[in-house]
Amino acid sequence: YCAARGAQNAFIKAVGLEFAAKNVQINAIAQNYVSNPVYYPDELVQSERFQKHLARNVPIRRVARPEEQAEFALFLASNNSDFFVGQIFPFSGGWAINA
Fold first, then answer.
1. How confident is the model at residue 98 (pLDDT cuts 50, 70, 90)?
2. Whole-number CA gyration radius for the chain
3. Separation of alpha carbons 46 and 69, rounded Å
4. For 73, which of 7, 29, 34, 85 is 20 to 30 Å away at the CA?
5. Catalytic entry in 1, 33, 39, 40
């Protein structure tokens, strides 16, 4: 996993650098803790054990709604994000700063 994630991050940075001069922004969203019925089913999310895990590890103390991630992706696809190039954005409710 670590090698694959490192390669993915390096790829985003390299391709971002290559295409920036062509006015194409390449970025990535590194998601974690986004509501998903397969990965985070409701019965897991509502469990006391998982809630304790969120309280310890995720500063925002909840999973994101899919709509929140979609809104962020739309922002990255908009002209408002033209200055972001080759970035990997943690979308994790703060887990990335706590890890």
1. confident
2. 16
3. 20
4. 7
5. 1
